[in-house]
Amino acid sequence: MPPHNVTQDTIVCYAPLMITSHGIWQGDNPLDYSLPLFVLQLSLVVVTTRILVFLLKPFRQPRVISEILGGVILGPSVLGRFSIFANAIFPLRSVMILETMANIGLLYFLFLVGVEMDMAVIRRTGRKAILIAVAGMILPFLIGISFSFLLHQGTQFVKQGTFILFLGVALSVTAFPVLARILAELKLINTELGRIAMSSALINDMCAWILLAVAIALAENERVNLTTVWVILSSAGFILVCIFVVRPLIFWVIQKTPEGESVSEFYICLILTGVMISGFITDAIGTHSVFGAFIFGLVIPNGPLGVTLIERLEDFVSGLLLPLFFALSGLKTSIGAINGADTWGILALVIILACAGKVAGTLLVALLYQMPFYDGVTLGLLMNTKGLVEMIVLNVGKDQKVLDDKSFAIMVVVALVMTAVITPVVTIIYKPTRRFAPYKRRTILKTKPDSDFRTLVCIHTPRNVPSIINLLDASNPNQKSPLSVHVLHLVELTGRASAMLIVHNSRKSGRPAANRTQAQSDHIINAFENFEQHAGFVSVQPLTAISPYSTMHEDICSVAEDKHVAFIILPFHKQQTVDGGMEVTNPAYRIINQNVLANSPCSVGILVDRGFGGATRIAGNQISHSLAAVFIGGPDDREALAFAWRMSSHPGSTLTVMRFVAGTDIEQPSTSGRVENDPRILTVVTDSDREKQEDDEFIHQFRTLIENEESIVYTETVANNGEETVGAIRSVGDVHDLFIVGRGQGTFSPLTAGLTDWSECPELGAIGDLLASSDFAATASVLVIQQYVSTGLEDFNLSPDSPGHHHEAFMNHTPNTNQRPSPSPRATYMQNSQ
Q: Which residue ranges does the record assign to the Cation/H(+) antiporter central domain (predicted)?
């Protein structure tokens, strides 16, 4: 028996007023009434989709696969083959309601896609992404034209010319929202490959919408005539009205909203009504209603308004209404229509050649731009992502009788297969280790004295800017060792299609900020640009990372690896209050810091800011910094002293190095009975002698170098326990304005015994947590440094340094105050960052 496709049946009449039933106790069948039947259909669709999402999660499949498969399962290919199920659950009289609700969901989903798209990305897109998008469309489009002649044979009521156009668009399109989620899943979203793929997909999407509008206009006419021209011109006029009339009105609404407050309910309702009006207008002029909703979404500026709209709609539309659209696509899909070995052979050939065409076109452009071969292949595979746009094209073609059952089913299967294989195949052929070239200068100690000092500074809010600029200025950039600063503004992802990394090339656009986030970015960029212009021997590259707090550390580490950074500077998650205490700014900042410490590809510093480099430290045009480095021992302390040594080269800085040594009455940690069972203690005992030897050698060389340096004071303090260590540090707590200490990871010293028992912030280490505590009553800022621990892989066949000379580059460094440009410009650029 052939499968029962309800969308192909005809109904003469039915009772439209049968909305709600009187209940089963009065003999009514709820499935005979529209509302309970629709609720059951919606529940079935959502449950089926969610089960498939759960089952396919281990295979890392995008949700669109589960939604399409859910529709296919409920359609005539599986459950719909049984007439009892089809007639009871999806009777023909219910299709109109399903179609209406599905199209409303589609209308608002495409509106959200438009809101989430950042048109500024397209404006910043280079020639490479444009050529990749065009090349990735042309070959599949030509392949679609070729296969249209094969598929067109034997079909009924199908117009050849329009059929060719629909098939070409369906095969050449790339689904931007689906691609964004695949890139995020593969951790490629903030790589160069991910950025090119996103930019190319955006351009591809825009071209697909234009071609879709043309295809719909041609659907009723075999040839281009006056009606077709009017449809296209009317669509262009609608776009112009949205850009030059609607968008300024929306900006006016945003400007009327007070800072920090959400847009009023009246304007939200007005905008949501505008979505339906836009859909009505484009449907009336002859294009699909979703085209109007999409364009209307594009003119909504990024910012609080867009976030509010997405928060109000996304879960309801994406979770409930949109699956109805895919369910209807499944109801229209009859796998049984793909009969015969010849048809299945054509299907396999379409999949292989369409995929190969996209890969070939993309790879050709990638090789022209000297991209690695594997990157080009991976990019081509990613551009094969299919999704909602293709399903819209196919459904419009089916409704307009451009596609018959067989061609529609073939194209749905093509979309499923091409999208399903992308994530597994890319995972196999594209290894993360190929993403970055290895580099050896991952620590301050290994940075050569005659090379640029590469740093990555992370900024949450403009309040972080002054102290970090002062810290960078105090690190003494000079002609011999210039400072290369990558400034990363960290923005929480709220209401965007995917995480993004924005590289700011043109910083003086002259345009007003469209939202608070952009205003903050402009403020931060201006402050660091001022620093670059006035400090001398400083280069600044501003970036903005937009991602969830839970994965923001991946963006930070990715940028650090990509830029070959030696030192990452993070702001502490607490800030100083008016009364001198410390309050939490955002708990998520602490989690970010902890994740960066655990995954960083280089050394990391956390800055606890108590007004470092404030106005009270300025004497005329000369800055005065009083620095203190606490040295107890271990790789982190050696790294901290290396940075302090660099800062001491600044003509206005003085450095006091406080080394704590164990006294004769020191209490040794008891390891009896635990060494065999505790590998941590065994490691400490085994490595303690080696670490002490390295510490002594390091300090000896350091003291030799500073013999004639009047601005550097070296002291040794004997302590027998943690209490004596705290007392010695407390005695100089108000003398200095910055303490530089090591985190002390993986080391144990009796000089800090007991301090970790009361630690509030273990990520700062024992001494760092002490100095940052409000109970310590210190006014100095604190920089806690963790040295990068090498895995050995990144240094393989690269580093000439022997294991025993990790600080050789540091020890070759000699301060040279003559290379520093004269009066520091801090007062100049700080005025811009206040």
A: 483-619
